[in-house]
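Dear Dr. K.,

Following up on our conversation at the group meeting, I've run the structure prediction for Protein-export protein SecB from Pseudomonas matsuisoli. I'm pasting the input sequence below exactly as I used it, so you can double-check it against your construct before we proceed with anything downstream. Let me know if the numbering doesn't match what you have in your notebook.
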Amino acid sequence: MAEQAGNEQAQGPQFSLQRIYVRDLSFEAPKSPEIFRQEWAPNVALDLNTKQKALEGDFHEVVLTLSVTVKTGEETAFIAEVQQAGIFLIKGLDAASMSHTLGAFCPNILFPYARETLDSLVVRGSFPALMLSPVNFDALYAQEMQRMQAAEGQTPTA
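The predicted structure tokens came back this morning:
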């Protein structure tokens, strides 16, 4: 009986984090050391992107890219980018659940790692830590799905 319950549980959806790693990392401070002599009035621009790739079997790679450009006045203080990646074992999900898991759930897991890596990188460049605010990947995913559905509804006719 216990064996049968174990088999039923094994047939259900499965999710497992296999590995988290930095895929790419870059930092540029084009105006140093002059930028350190200016008044620090940062203007932060964040670009966030995710991509997924199916690997062998039920394994998937998800890459979260955070690109930050910080200016003080008209001068670029620094540009930093991190690609935080993870390998996830995901099986037993329908297409909609798989899409949501890869597009929102996995990036939610990766974001704290990417944020810490970015903060550490910026501090090593002798700038104050960024301390990026949390991101609602579920809301971003929902917006993207709405945008895609609207785009499909506006297919040009010949």
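Two things stood out to me. The two ends are 62 Å apart (CA to CA). The beta strands are 14-28, 42-54, 59-72, 75-91.

Best regards,
J.T.
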